[in-house]
Write a structure and sequence with these properties.
Prot_kinase_dom, binds adenosine-5'-triphosphate, ATP-binding, 13 strands, 8-stranded antiparallel sheet, nucleotide-binding, ATP binding, Transferase(Phosphotransferase), domain 1, 2 domains, 3-stranded antiparallel sheet
Length: 334
Amino acid sequence: MPPPSSPNLHKAGAGPAPHGYVSSHDVVNAQTDAHRSSGSNSSPPITALHNQSEVQAHRQYSLDSFEIGRKLGKGKFGKVYCARDKATGYVCALKVMEKKELIHFKVEKQFRREIEIQSNLRHPNILRLYGHFHDSSRVFLILEYAGQGEMFKVLRKKGRFNDILASQYICQIASALSYLHKKHIIHRDLKPENLLIGLDGEVKLSDFGWSVHTPSSRRTTMCGTLDYLPPEMVEAKDHDYKVDLWALGVLTYEFLVGNPPFEEPAHKATYKRISKVDLKIPPFVSVEAADLIRRLLQHQPERRYPLDQIPDHPWIVKNRPLWPSSSGGQRRSS
Ligand SMILES: Nc1ncnc2c1ncn2[C@@H]1O[C@H](COP(=O)(O)OP(=O)(O)OP(=O)(O)O)[C@@H](O)[C@H]1O
């Protein structure tokens, strides 16, 4: 585990074995899992330790290094638990995957790429991967704990976000994407399901399974979620980092409207609408937000609004003074 020096690290509250943490050996005990996950939904009472100094660099981690808390969720390839590093008290999320499943579904390569990419990233709006370890049958990822959970769930619960919240999220995501693009990484799978929310309400971009280091020639691999696919991928043309700009436009729309713009019951119909950029923005969407959506959802990738101009877009400029100050917004100093 690289030194977890990020200001987003969190330390468990004081006291012996608090928050329902148990021995790490219980992590694969299905019965206790069920018991824990059906228990309290509240996050463990944890205290953010901002600017905490470097801790235990180059330590060798194993399952014994952690006390395992409640199950945070379940993905296609594993379960995620809240965990506390016994030595330091730091709280993280521990993702547990069965090796045989990764092999069975032929996702080892994708998984290795995800680890390689994510462990080298340092940005307040990108979920940190502190390290990984394995035993004979499982692989464990030590991830930053996103205390407010999944963006997707929050959005579905609220229906849609107001301009203030949506603009703050979009500005944070634009900053994270801009950081990735400067490192020649395309995310390629931006959608609410791949966004988590940190303890202070800040966006955490996660899931780098589809990401690629931009190659010299552009790629044609078909990937990503249907609703977020750009015209060039629907039309099986080459694509580059500008696919993320299109996805940001789709996301802006979904945040403000509650569903993605080209959604149709049949795949073919969705493809068609994407290819034609058949965009209908409801009248309740503000003029400024609609302008940004249209500028991002351009059929021609070169015409899409550049990420570095997003903080100066009128929608962001208008709403920035209303953002709650504690939620990790990417404020401009000028
Ligand atoms: N770092 C984290 N902090 C808090 N909760 C998390 C964290 N990582 C995952 N979770 C929770 O666990 C669930 C499962 O996560 P996981 O990454 O395994 O799968 P996923 O991203 O939902 O799906 P997929 O299997 O397609 O990658 C998430 O939906 C989320 O609710």
